[in-house]
Structures are given as C-alpha cells and as structure tokens.
Design brief:
Rossmann fold, alpha/beta, eight-stranded mixed β-sheet, 11 helices, about 240 residues
C-alpha cells in the first residue's frame, strides 16, 4: 500500500525541500520504492535542489492534461528514487489550478511504497487541497518562536484533513547557542514528538550547492544519520 507523507512547515525557509530529498534518499537506501512530489506550484524548489532548472515535463502539464503520469516522473537512478517536479516558470504557475491536483495522487496510488510530498508553505487552500490526499504529515520546524507557531497552525490544519502527525523534524539548530527553543519546548508547543534533529552545519550547505541530498554526498555526518533515523522511524510504523 502506498503511503502518502506530507512534509509541512507553515513558514517557508525552514529547509523542508532539503529534508524531503534527504528522506527520499534514506528510504531508497532502505530499498523502498519512493517518489518525491513537488506540490508547491507557486514557488517550487524540489527540481532546483537536484539541479533540474527547467524540467521538460512537469506536474503543471499533468494537471492541465498535457502530459501523462509516466511523462512527469523523472528517475534518478543514482539516488534510487524518482521525482515529479513542478514548473519554475511564473507563466506556468499562473495557468495551473492547484485545486486540480487530486489526479496525481490517484495515479500514484499502488505504484510506490512512499510518495513524499514537498508541500506549499503557508496555510492556504493549496496546502489544504494537498492534505486532503495525504495520509500522514511530518512537520519541519526551526528553533524559533515564529517557526514553531506557524508549524503549530500547519499541524492543526493537517489534522482537520485527517492526517496522522507522524512526528517533527527540528532543523537548523545551533551547536552552542542558548538563544533558541529546545527540543522539549518545541514538543510541548506542538504536541508532537521530535524524531530527528539536524544541526546548522556547512556540509548541509555544501550538499545544497552541489545539488545533492546530504545523505548521498556525506552519509556519515551526524545530520545524515538523523535523516536515516527518521526513515527508520517511518518504516517502523508500518510494522
């Protein structure tokens, strides 16, 4: 059975797309059949994070019935996963109705073990529409008040659409700073277990610069192992 997992944040810029890639890589390394779906039709980044600047077949075209589902699935055999990118073109975003995204979920059901959905930021109707078709959500949060409070709203929205909240990823924490929220404080606010914590380190930036998942480029780093831990946790929930 295909599991549709939404990665949500509320606030943009928390590292959600990088973590979607990392989690996809980790699940593929565990021999899971995985596709990553960029459901952010306004400001998509999933393809960009893999160096795919102008994909020749996109989710936008599928929604407009110009491409088949097979056309828009891009295989990355070196990583072991596939992606469905959205168009980076402003014109394409303007002529694509995000309220018609349901068909892509229908076409992916039963085809993959996991569909990881890089969701739109914010709390708009586009996010609500995506969450109607996912089963569970992982919330990505930074250790700041603004990030946590926006994440709380996203969690509440996901619950209204009958998503199980699988856990939270605490991203971009500092090595030494005492001027940020701690794991326990964030868990208390969100009412969600933090299942992985990634530090703000230069190897994450290096992976982003080289358009590669962190755990593909540097699999032995602490941050990469945290993403692997999240993947293991997700698979444990299947048992």
């Amino acid at each position: 059975m295909t599991r549709f997992v939404a990665l949500i944040s509320g606030k943009g810029g928390v590292g959600k797309t990088s973590l979607t890639l990392g989690l996809g890589q980790a699940l593929a390394d565990f021999d899971k059949n995985v596709v990553l779906l960029d459901a952010n039709l306004t400001t998509p980044n999933l393809g960009l994070h893999l160096g795919l600047l102008n994909p020749n077949a996109t989710l936008n075209e599928f929604i407009r019935k110009e491409r088949s589902i097979k056309d828009i699935i891009h295989d990355y055999k070196e990583h072991g996963f596939s992606i469905i990118p959205a168009s980076t073109s402003f014109a394409e975003s303007q002529k694509t109705n995000p309220m018609k995204i349901s068909k892509v979920f229908e076409n992916l059901a039963g085809t993959f073990d996991f569909v990881l959905v890089d969701c739109p930021s914010g709390l708009g109707n586009d996010l609500r529409e995506v969450l109607k078709h996912t089963d569970e959500a992982v919330v990505v949060v930074n250790p700041t008040n603004s990030s946590v409070m926006e994440a709380l709203k996203a969690v509440e929205l996901a619950k209204t659409q009958d998503n199980i909240i699988t856990g939270a990823i605490l991203n971009m924490t500092s090595w030494w700073s005492s001027h940020e929220l701690k794991k326990k404080e964030i868990e208390d606010i969100l009412g969600v277990q933090v299942v992985a914590e990634l530090k703000n380190d230069r190897k994450v930036k290096k992976a982003l610069y080289q358009s590669l998942p962190l755990n593909y480029l540097n699999p032995n780093t602490r941050s990469a192992k945290e993403v692997d831990k999240l993947a293991s946790y997700l698979m444990m929930l299947e048992e």
